[in-house]
Amino acid sequence: MKQLSLLSLAVALCVGCGGESNPPTSPVTGVVKLDGKAIEGAQIAFIADPSNPDNRAAAGVTDAEGRYSLTSFVSGDGAMAGKYNITVTKYDTPDGGANPYGDGAGQTIDENLSEEEQEAARDAAYAAGADDMAKSMKAGARQTPKNALPEKYAAITTSGLTFTVKDGEDNEFNIELQKK
User: Fold this and answer.
1) pLDDT tens digits, 107-136
2) 125: exposed, middle or buried (C-beta count within 10 Å: 0-12, 13-18, 19+)?
3) pLDDT higher than threshold 50 for residue 74
4) How would you classify residue 155: left for phi > 0, otherwise alpha for psi between -120 and 50, otherwise beta?
5) How far apart (Å, rounded) are the C-alpha atoms in residues 47 and 58?
6) Residue 138 in 3-state DSSP?
7) For residues 150 and 147, what is the distance between their CA atoms, to the nearest angstrom?
8) Quick check: 97 and 44 in contact, CB under 8 A?
9) Are 59 and 11 in contact (CB under 8 A)?
10) For the purposes of burial, counting CB atoms within 10 Å of the CB of 44, is it exposed (0-12), middle (13-18) or buried (19 or more)?
11) Contact assessment for residue 133 and residue 101, using Cβ atoms and an 8 Å cutoff
12) Dihedrals φ, ψ of 38, to 5°?
């Protein structure tokens, strides 16, 4: 779970890292539901299948209606064509679910900064998030963020969720999770 959280955090923090030389992506959207009810604040991660190792991971977070839009390089750009294994999580955390490290690491990085400045800003945001988590632990908060969704969906080896993104198409993948 810790590795997945770090991967998801890295994908989320790298939004806007790319430039004009990014590989082509196609939009990927959908709705996440648990037993028929839309889930707000769920984090979706599309992790490239070993059959297409050059593909970059893509991620998104659901809104109040359970809708998500994936990002690979630039906000909302989608995912590269190919097969993906998918995880869905929703952590009970200080920022409401997306970031197990707290508010600080979820700060937006200014796309107008140089690559070095963006890296320094990401490092500072990560450190601030770690400080937030340490403070909440000292205040008696739960030490381990709790996933509000069934644990089986937190790992690509157990989620059973896969999707193949088609190049040049608007791809829709609705995810229906089950408690049992």
Assistant:
1) 444 556 676 776 666 666 656 666 665 666
2) buried
3) yes
4) beta
5) 7
6) helix
7) 7
8) no
9) yes
10) buried
11) yes
12) -60, 140
For residue 84, give both structure tokens: 């993906």
Domain locations along the chain = 2-177
Token digits for 115? 């690559």
Joined tokens for residue 120: 């320094």
Helix, strand, coil percentages, rounded to 5, for the chain: 25, 25, 50
For 130, counting Cβ atoms within 10 Å of its Cβ (0-12 exposed, 13-18 middle, 19+ buried), the class is: middle
Q: From residue 25, how far is each of 1, 96, 169, 172 by CA, in Å? A: 28, 29, 9, 14
Predicted TM-score (pTM) of this structure:
0.66
Using DSSP's 3-state secondary structure scheme, residue 19 falls into coil
Q: Rounded to an integer, what distance in angstroms lies between the CA atom of residue 42 and that of residue 99? A: 10
The Cα diameter of the chain in Å comes to: 50
Using one digit for the tens of pLDDT, what is the confidence trace for 44-73? 999 999 998 899 999 999 999 999 999 999
Residues 74 and 22 sit within 8 Å (Cβ to Cβ):
yes
What DSSP designation does 107 have? P
Where does the pLDDT of residue 145 fall: very low under 50, low under 70, confident under 90, or very high at 90 and above?
A: confident
Question: Tokens 């809104």 label which residue?
Answer: 63
